[in-house]
Design a protein that fits this description.
The chain is mainly α and 322 residues long. 76% of the residues lie in helices and 1% in strands. The protein has one domain (7-316): Orthogonal Bundle (Farnesyl Diphosphate Synthase). The chain is built from 17 helices and two strands. Strands 1-2 form a two-stranded antiparallel ribbon. A hairpin with a 2-residue loop joins strand 1 (92-93) and strand 2. Helix 5 runs parallel beside helix 8 (129-152) and helix 13 crosses helix 16 (279-296). Belongs to the FPP/GGPP synthase family.
Length: 322
């Protein structure tokens, strides 16, 4: 399934989002322009602004406000990436050097702060208190998720429930915010906003679970990162948690040691244990369940190209590991 074709109904809107991003990124401080431009130019799927546009248009929005809020979400997401790479001491993202690797941690963190504050300036332009409330709650949840994930690093005792909570806070809440903002921009009623919020939340969980799988099965030339990146950072993701719970004592001890040490010397053996315990099918099945639940949340929505695109996006997610 081709993502570009899937997003065709919002192709013109996405161009307008890109133009808005470039215009609002401008600063009199050269370093901010350099770092922000570098990150934005790195590309990526731009799923979060696409979700704002598709949910807004599916709910009947025809205004420029939807475009503004889509750009706002992308600024928030980009800020989180800048901060994440510093915390994780990452050197590569999407096959390119991270901003902190090029300009240093201080420049990356402070530029991320600029993007956060610029995003809130843009929210004020929407003149909707509900937009401010949604994004204030969302950025707070993301920060909590980051701290919770930091506490999980190097800890092989992390349970599936504890890990799923990180996913909900770090990833699902921003997906949920994107679809809620789209619905708000369409002046949807409470039921409509809740329907879109459920879709976004379920889809966000599903996307993160698939990313967890890709860390152990993806072609690095396609995924933009090497196998075992999460393991090298000491992150106990669901495939590892499942493998420790269902593997032999020797397999569990192997994985525990790898998480504690955050090293890849035994990656080949860890991959074998993950495969032998059915951790990949287990994680994929859970992702597919969340994708189905996301799709079901749209069942009462009138048919439209944008609704169909939202449904196709949930199915596209499943196909990333097929």
């Amino acid at each position: 399934m081709d993502l570009k074709a899937l997003l065709a109904p919002i192709a013109d809107d996405m161009k307008r989002v890109d133009n808005t991003i470039r215009a609002r990124l401008s600063s009199e401080v050269a370093l901010i322009n350099d770092i922000g431009g570098y990150i934005i130019a790195a590309g990526g799927k731009r799923l979060r602004p696409a979700l704002v546009l598709m949910s807004g248009r599916a709910m009947g929005s025809k205004t420029d406000e939807t475009v503004l809020l889509a750009a706002t979400i992308e600024f928030i997401h980009t800020a989180t990436l800048l901060h994440d790479d510093v915390v994780d001491e990452s050197g590569l993202r999407r096959g390119r050097k991270t901003a902190n690797a090029v300009w240093g941690n201080a420049g990356a963190v402070l530029s991320g702060d600029f993007l956060y504050s610029r995003a809130f300036q843009m929210m004020v332009d929407s003149k909707r208190m509900e937009v401010m409330r949604v994004m204030a709650d969302t950025t707070n949840a993301i920060a909590e998720g980051e701290v919770l994930q930091l506490m999980n690093v190097g800890d092989p005792e992390v349970s599936e429930a504890r890990y799923m909570r990180v996913i909900e806070l770090k990833t699902a809440r921003l997906f949920e915010a994107a679809t809620k903002l789209g619905a708000i921009s369409a002046d949807a009623d409470e039921a409509g906003i809740a329907r879109m919020a459920e879709y976004g939340h379920k889809l966000g969980v599903a996307f993160q679970l698939v990313d967890d799988v890709l860390d152990y099965v993806a072609d690095s030339s396609l995924s933009g990162k090497n196998l075992g990146t999460d393991l090298a950072e000491g992150k106990p993701t669901l495939p590892l948690i499942h493998a420790m719970k269902n593997g032999t004592p020797e397999q569990a001890e192997l994985i525990r040691g790898a998480i504690v040490e955050g090293k890849l010397e035994n990656l080949a053996e860890v991959l074998k244990a993950v495969e032998a315990t059915g951790a990949i099918p287990y994680t994929r099945a859970l992702a597919e369940r969340y994708s189905r639940e996301a799709e079901n949340a749209l069942s009462d929505l009138p048919d439209s190209p944008h609704k169909n695109a939202l449904i196709s996006l949930a199915r596209y997610n499943n196909a990333r590991v097929s």
